[in-house]
Amino acid sequence: MEEKEITMEVVNPKAAGVDIGSRSHWVAIGQGPNDYREFGVFNEDLYQIVEFFRENGIKTVAMESTGTYWQSLYAVLISENIPVILCNGKFTKNIKGKKTDIQDCQWIQKLHSMGLLTGSFLPDEETEQLRTFCRHRAGLLDSAASASKKMQKYLRLLNFRLDVVVNDICGLTGLSIIKSICQGQTDAAKLASLRHGNCHKSEQEIAKALHSNGRKDYLFALNQELEMYELLQSKIVQCDHEIEKMLSQIIDNDDDKKQHHIDSKPHKKINKNTPKNIDLNLKSYQYFEGIDLMAIEGMSYSTVLAIMSEVGLEGIKKFPTAKHFSSWLRIVPNNKISGGKILSSKVPRGSNRLKTMLRNAANAIGNLKDSTPLRDFFQRINFRKGRVSAISATARKLAVIIWNMIVKGIPYHNPTEYLFLDQKRKLGLVKRIQKQITKFELKPTDFGFVTD
To answer: How many angstroms separate the CA atoms of 23 and 409, rounded?
Structure first.
């Protein structure tokens, strides 16, 4: 019986594979013993890789997304008009056995030449720059939160129980008292007199919590953490200015964006970590060319900013359907089927920042007091499968709504419009007045109104 050879069609005959490293890059242009070379990671080495590709007629390149080491080579190849496919490392794993850099780069080249590799999502250059600013700002916020926790620790060691009498030690009342403590003030009454008018506790209650044990070492550490916190806050403000400048540049360079205008939303709650110098309601409406994502209940300014910086307008249009977008976010079940039976349907793990923001928005929807379609959907899933599953399901629904709004231009319509706190108070006041008018059978003339 004749043996049949099984061959695979070569889709990319002039393909190369690159094994990215921290100190060197291994490049393969074929499977032969002399079809690979090692290059350094300096700028001149990267351009030598480009020349190596041109000498051998390479038309397309595949590489792993290893840490951040790939970014410099990727930028050089793109600038030299060489098509590059950036792959997830789990799709380029070699078969079990001895592992070397030479085998890795040739394996990547082999997979790419047969068309078995798909590229990862990458935003455009403007979105990538905006993402850098926003991610750096998020890091500064985390550092500021860490400094705040350390301040609270040293206050507690000094026997200042400021955390008991104020909700936030880095609020107006808390920071004023901490600054006065670091300047040497120890009198509890004088410290309590720095209370802001919005603080719920009285001066007498605050004064009881501000009696120190006088430890100099803890006071020194508290002063250091306060300086660090203030420095980080100034850096956050500088980062906000860069984000505002970047958004203005993107919008001003596009006539389709800057022609749009929307009224402000005074009832929309602004988190203390939201950029203060940016009208994100207007900027997002212009950025998405007339799409009002803030109309969705549960959507915050931070979530909209994450959408703009993580995927962008053109980036979200790269996904052909809402299902592709939700799958990329890793908020849909990953069904594993064998023999017609679903073996597993867990939501895959992932550290996508936009996924985290959408889950936070879904959690906020679940906490709404009033009935809305999204809130009712959350409660139904919560009743059947628990809150964790409800958050994932609502986040997926938010992703579908956002994709349809941006790509298809379908405006979000809530049949039972959500009312903010001030609107609720006004509506309640009107109903009470109407009830009193009916009860006492009052007429317009009783109020001095003249009717024709």
So the answer is: 47
| Separation CA 114–CA 263 (nearest Å) | 54
d(CA 260, CA 54): 46
CA 159 to chain centre: 38
Exposure of 96 by Cβ count < 10 A (0-12 exposed, 13-18 middle, 19+ buried)?
Answer: exposed
Ramachandran area for residue 326 (φ above 0: left; ψ -120 to 50: alpha; else beta)? alpha
Cα-based distances in Å from 193 to 155, 161, 175, 286, 370: 18, 16, 13, 46, 39
Report the amino acid identity of residue 431.
K
DSSP string, 264-317: --TTS---TTS-SS--HHHHHHHHTTS--GGGSTT--HHHHHHHHHHTHHHHHT
What residues are paired with 37 via a beta bridge?
27
* Strands 84-87 vs 36-39: parallel, antiparallel or unpaired: unpaired
Confidence (pLDDT) at 417: 56
pLDDT at 80: 93
DSSP annotation of 441 reads: T
Structure tokens of 21?
A: 């490293």
Q: Is 325 helix (H, G, I), strand (E, B) or coil?
A: helix
User: Is residue 230 packed enough to be buried (19+ CB in 10 Å), middle (13-18) or exposed (0-12)?
Assistant: middle
Taking the C-alpha atoms of residue 246 and residue 252, their distance in angstroms, rounded to an integer, is 10
Least Cα distance to 105 among 6, 27, 208 occurs for 27
| Rama region for 330: left / alpha / beta (φ>0; ψ in -120 to 50; rest) | left
List the one residue out of 316, 282, 329, 317 whose CA is nearest residue 301. 282
Q: Which parts of the chain have pLDDT scores under 70?
A: 1-7, 95-97, 415-424, 449-452
Amino acid making up residue 73: L
For residue 34, what are the CA distances in angstroms to 23, 37, 54, 334?
21, 8, 17, 42
* Pair of tokens at residue 340: 């017609």
Owner of token pair 């090692």: 38
Q: Is the pTM of this model over 0.90?
A: no
Amino acid (1-letter code) at residue 38: E
> What are the two backbone dihedrals, phi and then psi, of residue 68, each rounded to the nearest 5 degrees?
-115, 10
Angle formed at CA 233 by CA 227 and CA 238, multiple of 5 degrees? 130
What the chain holds in terms of domains, given with CATH numbers, is: 15-113 (3.30.420.10), 126-245 (1.10.287), 265-407 (no CATH), 419-452 (no CATH)
Amino acid type, 365:
I
